[in-house]
Every structure is written in structure tokens, then in C-alpha cells.
């Protein structure tokens, strides 16, 4: 019987004679062991104390024969090192280095055990102690005279308290290998001892008793190491039990076969031998059952809900191994419930182990009947885990649900399946791919191949996948919340690649004519199929996930590269012929045509010439021309333009043929454009809608083509400029024509600049381009006052872009010859740009919402309008950052930082950061200027008598505080800038004297209260300097005034005079003063005082950081509690901030390490907000024991196991308190 203490030692010389050879398939190394193993006794069940009279009395240590454990240099239980110190002399060192084969290490230990089992066991005990990171050593005297708990307590004192690391947690490849060697050693030890030594009632009793005691320790290292050892020991015993069961069945069959022979041929001696072997195997099985019960009840049921996640994960991983290895004994509700309960664990790694353990079980179809009750009980939890916040857990949950689906389609309801379906649109690719596999199994794997092929032949199709593709289209359309076809294709790419690459079937579905009796694709389904087709083509040609899914393009393997090339050739050969037909059928539908025209960019264009398919190229060019003539939608025209650009690549031989077709098309459009412009300008105000449409339609087409093609030889700028001038002079030009003319002129200028920069420009070319740019900038400036908002916005964006392009940066990089093209905006243009931003960007939300009132897509329009305004602001801020517009203009931007924080806070903050990098002092002047502007506006509204408690004043002070925080912690770097800011602020405060006389405060004196927000950024020396500068503006009477109107001056002076000793220089500045060096030589303050100061400074920095992250508004500032105050609180109210819920502090409390076998309470960890899962307070019988399944000779022992998932069989347990009373931890 295994007790909680070390067993009574017995003299190794008193071992009885050998039992007869009864082991089956015994290896040669074990044959010699039997002669030295005493006769076995049957173990009792756990919980029963053995009779002391059954144990032989131990001889005194003096009577014991002394022997030395061979091969490991141990004498008296103390490790003896070699003289050179090179060879490992302990089991721990041998296993850690891993230089010797584990088989030989174990055989060597077995030999030492035969010589003196006490010293050999002492070696094994020290092995477990040292593997836990303990530097202590158990001596032979301790082993013989001390109780188990006393030895563990003694070893606890030997721990190195300076470090919490121990071998199982140490980083590095050596310790990772050690973990593997540690587990292998235990496995090999049991395997080598399985025929004799493990039944001697000594070795296993000692080891299991030790591991049980260590696993109950509050020292994490002991608990972790011993649990891992015990679980691996249990796994090895399960394997032994499985082998015994097999041997029993084989023996039983041999016995029955011999007994059934006729009397003359029956061998009675053989029958007796088989009966003896069967009895011995039965006794061995009982022994193994007792060992496994001891480990399971003594260790597993406590540690599977340990405070440490790694320990819980070990237990769940190993129980999964037992259930798979020996399903007859362990795959039942009594053990499955532990995995089911732990599915609710709050740590992702534990939930992950649960799912992987279940996957190993559900993979075997034969085990499904045993898993049926578990599936019904925990299916909802498993399905909900597909939304786990840990992506790794979600992926494995989806894979497990897929395995459940494969085993039984009836196990999952439609709602369960729908919960997984939508995950194909997840941005996390592994989750999406796993969901795609599930979708493939559910929807695309249940078709009848013969029926599909018969239907395909009847319709004349080459592919039987028609119905599956229809189903894919329907699924895509029913996913109303998602419109990302590229994501759906990518999710299914690995599982349904054959279906997704069936472009012939997709084309046939799109091109086939209606047949009586069969439903055709609707217009919406055709659009969806075309979109999906284009996405599959892109995925095959580019061989990487779509944008937003994945970390970027990875390097393809040789096999993937070959597949990509083959797919590209396949799709090119097919769509070269099919695309003209598709365009011909759908040329009137702009959405379908825009998608179809994306296909040529994925072609291998060499196929046209290599395959002699020029006629198909002509057909494609003809259809594109027809599309250009029929449509004026921007996306269609841009697709056509891009297709021409791709086909005109100089590296392909088809370039000349395509260039001719393109030139003919441009010639016709430019002639038509010139003619229509003349008519429009001649008729002027009398122009009708047809004249306007002719100009607009042709201009849209030319603008779309000018974006991707150099059309400067057609001189489109001239006619566009004429249209713009006419519109400015007459004021009657339609806004769409003006917008398109501006855009086309912009493209023309950029293409001219490209031509000049790529070659060696002449002076005439530079002068001509400068003249064009100057005239166009003037037109754009005039358009800023246009009555039509789209025209003004377009003109503003083009002005900002051109000023950026033709700025002083144009001549960088050795391009000084382009100096004539540099333009610097004058003050008038800068003011107009700034006023445009103030009028069109910083507008009230109420005005915007009123202008959009009644719109069905109100929310979408608001988002679009905000996006447009952000682009306008960003374009202007770029001019400030790159010193094209004077930095003081940013003052009007910075002053809106608080009011429009939610809309533009990130843009304004980035602008402030970049301008400070350019010029710290000028940036500081700009900041104070923005505050002065707000103060002046407030004076104009309220007059000289400001209400200093009003929200407007508080708003200015809050903005100043935010500005002060942007200066950072390094006061040395910002020293000059902050001092300049104070100087300008003081001058502004005393700028205007009160007209009522010197006894009244200056008109702007209240500004000093705003300025005091920056005082904390001054170092001590500068505070004195600023104060001296302040006194120059003060009269003697001012310093004596104490009325309320003088309070701003008083508070500002106090901010400069106080706090000097509390000023802290930035540690990053690297500067030091003599005072600091003198102080460092003084005695150190008491430790507790030093801690308080450090914690206070940390809290101060935290408050500062919290302020920088605070969003504006009337939100209450959360109350911050000092770390010192928190430390003084009662322990029961002080949760550990570093430990997650369910950590060791929560679990180790008055009840100990969970002695009671009650189901743990876990919190819901799902991403969705479906509500908390109800707490599971089920309890099971503590008296459950491992009962191996009966072999044929043990059928009478079989009994009906209770249903541990049935609520009637469960007893409600009081909730486990997780208040977390702290306990002693040694880490």
C-alpha cells in the first residue's frame, strides 16, 4: 500500500528467493532481476491502512550490509565528484547533459538497485529534488530517520530565493532538451522495470509517496516538477496496464483453446502453467491499478486545477494520452469530465491542451460511441470556443468542431454551424482557414459525383462542379454582413482549391443560355460569381493572402512557385478566349465589366504570341473599346485604362498592336473633345444639356486615361485651361466639368514633369513648364472662391499637391537644374489656404448633421464627409511640416486640438511632433500664439472682465496643459523652447495697459494663469531667470496687490518661486550638477523611505502618462490611489496586479491546494458578449478508483458505471472562494 510517508526500509540482503518466471515477453535484462525480487504481496485499495504485522521489521543501520551504487560515485548518499571534475556523477547531471542513451542510464540504475536499493532510491530521490532546482541533497540518514514531510521541509530551506527559475522554466535549448530527457527517463525507467521491480512494493511506493508529497508543496518548483514526473509515470503505468490486458486476453484464449481439445490431446501441464500465468497477470494488474489510483487520487485530482497554468496543462495533456492509449479503461465519463470542466479554464494554454486532447480522441471514428454523452454535454462550450479571444485556441476549437462534424453530422445543429460559417471572413488567417475547412466539409463534400457528372454531360459542361459553385455563390450572397469575396476565397483556398480553380465551370455558368426546366443565375448571382472568379484568379496568380490578412508577402517554396506558374498559364490560356465573350455579354453592366477588366492584369502575356492567339487579343481590344464608348463611370474607365497600360508593357511583343489600338482611341476622343469644347465655349450660356454631356463624357474618359498614360502629345492642358478660365470669367461652368478639367490639367503637368526629370531638359522646356504651372496655380487659387464646394475642394487638394511637388525639395538629390520650377507660396495664397481649412474642416457637427438630415444613408455619408475633411486637413498640415507654409499658420490649427480631438486629434498631434523636430523654438512660439488667439477671442466675447471659473477659460487652461505634456520629460532638450514660450507669454500679458490707470491690472493679465501650466517644464535655474524677466514688467505696487483680479499674477509668480527643490532633471539628459555629486556622497536614506519616494515618482509619471492618453470632454478624472496606500491595505482586499484571475494567490488559501474534488469555477473568456456561462458547481465521489476493464476471466467484476454528466448524479458544491487570501510562496 502506498502511504503518504516513505515506506519502512528493508534490508536488501533479506530478499527472498525468486519467483518462477511468469513474465510474458520479458527482455533479457529483466531475466536476471527476478532472482533478487522478493515475493509479491497484493496491494490494498487506497484509503486502507495496511497491517503493520504484514511488514518485515527493518534491521538497524549498523546491521545493514553496506554497498556502493555503481557507476555514479555515491557513498553514504552523497555525490562524489571525479578528480578532473569532467564527468557527470549524478542522475540529474547525466539526464541534463543527455550524452548517454537513456536506456543505458536506466540499466545502470537498475544494477545499482540490485546491489543496494536504499542507495539507489536515494539517488532517484535526489534526482527529483535537483530537477526541481533545489540545491539541497537528501542524505542517507535523513532518508532513514526522517518523515517525508520533514525531508521536503528541509529541502525547501535549501532553495535559492534570489531566483524563481528552475530547470523546467529556464530558457534555452539545453533546458528544453532537459525536459525531454526528464520525461524520457521516467518512461524508460518504468518500461525497464515493468516485469519485476515495480511489483516489489518498495521502489514504486517510495517514488509515488515522494512525488505525492512534493506535489502538495507550496513551492512552485517542487509542485511543477513532481506533477510532470507523476503524470509521465502514470502514462508509463497505463502502457504497462495495457500490455498486461493484452497478455491476459492472449493467455485466456490459449487456455480455452487447450481446454477445448479432446482428452487425448489435452496437455494438463500446459493448462496448469496457463492458469498460473493468468493468476500472476491478474495480480500484476491489481498492483498496477493500485499504483495508478494512488497517482490519480493523490496528485491528478488536486493538480488539474492548480493555481499554475502550466501544471494544469500538464495534467490535461496526459489524461488525454491515457484516454487515447487505453480507451477501454479511461475513455468514459469519469475521466472525460475533467477535460470538459477545464474547457472553461481562464488560461489559453490550458484550454488549448483540452482541445488537442479531444482532437486525438475524435480523430478515431471507433471512439465516437463512447464520446456521445460528452459531446451532448459540452458541445455548446466547444462551439462557443471558436470565438475564443486566444486565436490559437479558436483555431483548435474550429478543428475539433470539424472532427465532430465528420463523425456525426447530426451532432451539430444549424445554429452551431452558422456560428462557424461567418469566421471565414475573420482577419486572422489561421482562424479563417480552419473555418474554411469546416465550410468545405459541411457544404462542398456531400454531393453525388455520379449525378453531377450525368447532369454535366446532359448540359454539355466539361465540369461536374456546377452545383457546388452555385452553392458557393449562394453562401456568399447570404453572408449579408460581409462583402469580402477575397477573404472567402482565401479561407477556402487550402481546402477547396480544386473547386475554386475550376474556371471552365464558372465560365460555362456565366455564358450558358437558359434551358427549360433549370433555374438560371439571377443578375445578383452573376455579379457575385464574377467577383468570386476574379478573386480566385488573383489568389492563384499572386499566391499570397489578400490585403489585411497575413503579415505580408512571404518567399514561396520551389513547389509553390511551380504551382503558381502552372496556375497562371492555365488561367491565361482559358480567359484569353473566354474574356472577350464575357465582356461581350455583360458590356452594358458597369459593375460586371469593371470586375472582368481586372482579369488581364494576372495574365502571362507571352501566351498571346507564343500560342498564336493574336486574334483573341484583337477581340479583347475591340470589346474594351466598346466598353469605353458606352460607359462614363469612373471605376469602369479606370479599369479600361489600367488594362491598356498592362497590355502596352514594352517587354511583350504585343505592345505595338495594343499601342496602335490605344492611339486610335485617344485620337478619336481628343478630336471629339476639342470639337465639343469649341461648341460649348461658342454657345456659352446658351449651351444645352447635350453640349455639356458631350464635353463631360469625353473629358471623363480622357482624364481616366491620362492618369495611367502619357497623353502630353495631344496637349489636353490647353482645352482644359480654356474651360477653367471661361468658368472663372463667366461663372457658369458646370461643376463636374470644372472638377474633371482641374484633374486632367494636373495629370498633364505631372507627365510633363516626369519627362523633364527623366531626361536632360533645355531652358525652354523649364520655362514652358514653369509658365504652365504658374498659370494653373493661379486658376486653382481663383477656384478657391468658387460657389461649388466640389470645385473648391478639388482646387485646394491640387494646390497642396503641386506646392508640395514643386517645393524646394524638387532640387534635392543633385537636381539643382530644376531650380526654375520651384514655387514658394506668397502670404496671400497661404492665408487663402488657411482660411479654406478653417471654413471647411473645422465646422460644427450640428451644421453637418442638418445638411444631411433626411438622407437614408446618413451615417455612411457622415463617415465619408469626415474622411474627406481629414484629407483636406492632412494636405495642409503637410505643407506646414515641410516648411512650405510658414509655421505660425499652424497656430490656427493647434488651437482646435481639444475641441476636435476625436476627429482630427491624431493629425494635429503628429503635426505638432513633426514641427517640433524641425524647429523647437518656433514651434513653442506657435503654441503660445495659438493660446493667445483663443484668449483674444474670449476677450472679444466676454470683455476685459473675464470669468476665470468659466468653462471657456478652463478649456484654454486644459489645452495649455496638453501642450505642456507634449514637451516630454527631458527638460534639457526643451529648455530653450520652454523659456522662449514663457518670455512671449509674459510680454503678451503686459502688452496692453489698462486704460483706467496703473492701479488696475493689464488687460491680458489673466493669460498668466494659462501660462502657469508650463511652469513645471522649466528647470530650477530657468525659473529664477523667468521670474526676473517677469519682475521687469511689474511695478512695486503690483507685487503688493492681493485682490482677486491680481490672482493670475500671484499664482504665476508662485509657480516660478516654489517647487525649485522638487525639480527633477531628466535621467535621459545625461547631465549632472555639482550639487548632485555632493548629495550622492551622503548616506543613503532608509530603505522604506527610498521605496516610498520611488513609488511616488512612479505614480507621478503614471499620472502624467495617463493625462496624455486622456480624451477630451467632461469626463471625470479617475481617482488614483498611491502605491504606498495600497500596500497598507488589508491583505484580503489586495489582489495581486501581476497575477491573472485564478492565479496561485487565488487558489492557495485556507482550504489548501484544493483537497476537495470539486469542479473548479472558471470565468468566460470568449470574444463575443453572449453572456457569462453559468457556473458549474458539480461534484463527484472522492472514492472513485481506477478499475481496468475486465478481461474474459474477470467479467464478473464488471459493473455499471454511474453517469457523471447526469445532473441527478451530481451534488451541488458550494462555490470555491477566489477572494485570494495570500499564502507563502517561494519562487
Shape designation? flat
* Biggest sheet statistics: 2 strands, antiparallel
Strand residue content: under 5%
Q: pLDDT below 50 for ≥5 consecutive residues: which ranges?
A: 1-85, 1060-1183, 1191-1227
The helix fraction, in percent, is: 55-70%
Strand order in the largest sheet: 1-2
Instruction: Supply Rg.
Output: 42 Å
- How far apart are the termini? 33 Å
Question: Helical stretch count?
Answer: 51
Q: What value does the average pLDDT take?
A: 78
Query: What's the β-strand tally?
Result: 2
The SS-based structural class is mainly alpha
Explain what this protein looks like in three dimensions.
Residues 1066-1078 have a biased composition (Low complexity). Pfam families: HEAT_SCC3-SA (PF24571), SCD (PF21581), STAG (PF08514). Residues 1126-1136 have a biased composition (Basic and acidic residues). Keywords: Cell cycle, Cell division, Chromosome, Chromosome partition, Coiled coil, Nucleus. It is found in: Nucleus; Chromosome; Chromosome, Centromere. With 1227 residues, the chain is mainly α. Among the domains are: 413-550, no CATH class; 863-1058, no CATH class. 59% of the residues lie in helices and 0% in strands. It has 51 helices and two strands. A two-stranded antiparallel ribbon has the order 1-2. It is flat. The protein starts with 27 loop residues before the first helix and ends in an 80-residue tail after the last helix. The model is unreliable at 1-85, 1060-1183 and 1191-1227 (pLDDT under 50).
